[in-house]
Design goal:
This protein is an alpha/beta fold and 315 residues long. It has 13 helices and 14 strands. The chain folds into two domains: 160 residues, Rossmann fold (3-Layer(aba) Sandwich); 121 residues, Nitrogenase molybdenum iron protein domain (Rossmann fold, 3-Layer(aba) Sandwich), CATH 3.40.50. Helices cover 39% and strands 19% of the residues. β1 and β2 form a beta hairpin. The N terminus is likely disordered.
Length: 315
């Protein structure tokens, strides 16, 4: 077969694939334990939290957005993300209300359980559906409303893939997923057999806010060649007693950097905590810091895996 024929065949297959992947409305997608139907691509979308907003921007969906929420009240943005959001208003610094969404004529809300929504709260898929607002739930957060397996990077890929279908930008979504998968695979190829014991510290003094097997840190630690000391807890983001941390004796502590308390202050609290002085990570001062946007499901999960792998195993 000649090179010209091969090229023509490749172009033909590519064109056929693009045609096959185009969204045909009405479109129904799975969101947690629900099915959501879209009669057309949303035109007035609102994303909640920095990680979900970053996903929308990465897919080129800014023109389809009326704003975002839940960032400035909790987290800091990089100058690059601030520039990307230029001209797009933050409709609520922390949690938006139903009135916030109605006043902005929102037709699509990208949020999650414990990421802008809570069970029994005013802002849920059930309360918004009668108002003509479709909700797509962050896959990782489904653990708060249904039984599901351990968190995986596939959760992030699933969200990107579904957003691509909902907004008819599958080519961008597939390209981004493929790039992320290749970068993670490259990290995994270089991992040694040793898997250090890892504790993720989000916040808290009386008790520690951390993650069990259903939160995204489980997937990040695993992909980077570590062992989450709380992998046996069938829960997502949760609180544990310090006695549990001491008993499981992590060799590395990962600190999530966000909010008014800096990563340096969190580290100092851990170093000064009398209850933790026997912990290997404290004695050897083995800390890794990742920002909130990397610790939660989103496109920066790859950066987290790269940072953690280097911290766990060295350059």
């Amino acid at each position: 077969m000649t090179l010209r024929v091969l090229l023509c065949l490749a172009l033909s297959l590519a064109a056929g694939q693009a045609l096959a992947e185009a969204t045909h409305y009405p479109l129904t997608v799975h969101s947690c334990n629900r099915e959501v139907t879209f009669n057309q691509a949303p035109r007035h979308a609102l994303s909640h939290d920095i990680n979900m907003t970053q996903m929308m921007l990465a897919l080129g969906l800014k023109p389809r957005m009326v704003g975002y929420s839940g960032i400035s009240g909790w987290k800091a943005m990089t100058p690059e993300m601030q520039a990307s959001l230029a001209g797009l208003p933050e409709l609520a610094a922390k949690y938006p209300s139903v009135e916030t969404l109605l006043n902005a004529n929102v037709d699509f809300f990208f949020a999650g359980w414990d990421y802008g929504m809570r069970v029994g709260g005013d802002l849920t898929p059930q309360t918004l559906a009668p108002l003509g607002i479709n909700v797509y739930e962050l896959t990782e957060s489904c653990a708060f409303v249904m039984k599901r397996p351990a968190a995986s990077l596939d959760d992030t890929y699933n969200d990107l893939r579904n957003l691509g279908r909902i907004f008819d930008v599958q080519d961008r979504a597939n390209q981004l997923i493929s790039q992320m998968q290749q970068q993670v695979a490259e990290v995994k190829r270089q991992l040694p057999a040793d898997r250090p014991r890892v504790f993720l510290y989000d916040s808290g003094e009386d008790r520690a806010m951390t993650s069990g097997r259903l939160g995204m840190p489980q997937a990040l630690i695993d992909a980077a060649g570590g062992r989450n000391i709380l992998a046996d807890l069938d829960t997502s983001w949760t609180r544990v007693n310090w006695e549990t941390v001491v008993e499981r004796n992590p060799q590395v502590i990962v600190i999530v950097d966000y909010s008014e308390i800096s990563a340096e202050q969190k580290q100092q609290f851990l170093l000064d905590n009398p209850a933790l002085q026997s912990v290997d990570a404290i004695r050897n001062r083995r800390f890794i810091v990742i920002p909130y946007v990397q610790a939660t499901p989103g496109i920066d999960n790859v950066l987290a895996v790269q940072t953690l792998a280097k911290g766990f195993h060295g350059p």
